[in-house]
Amino acid sequence: MREDVAPPxxxxxxxxxxxxxxxxxxxxxCVASHPGQGWWLLCNGVVCFxxxxxxxxxxxxxxxxxxxxxxxxxxxx
Length: 77
Ligand SMILES: [Zn+2]
What we know:
It is a single chain. By secondary structure, the chain is mainly β. The model has no long low-confidence stretch (mean pLDDT 83). Helices cover 0% and strands 21% of the residues. It is built from no helices and 5 strands. It has strands at residues 30-34, 39-42, 47-49, 54-55, 61-62.
């Protein structure tokens, strides 16, 4: 057993979802999706948009990543 910090919200997932201020906040579990409207809500309160834009629960808006080309992140496989 390890002593973890208390989860930010009542997150029922295991492992718990990263907080909204975390760099990998987009990895949180989707709790509500609205594909018809082009957005979905993550467990940590972050709203993701179809155009890769994001809206943090504190009101911070992250503009979409407009990548043109074959820029790939470091693949693991
Ligand atoms: Zn969660």
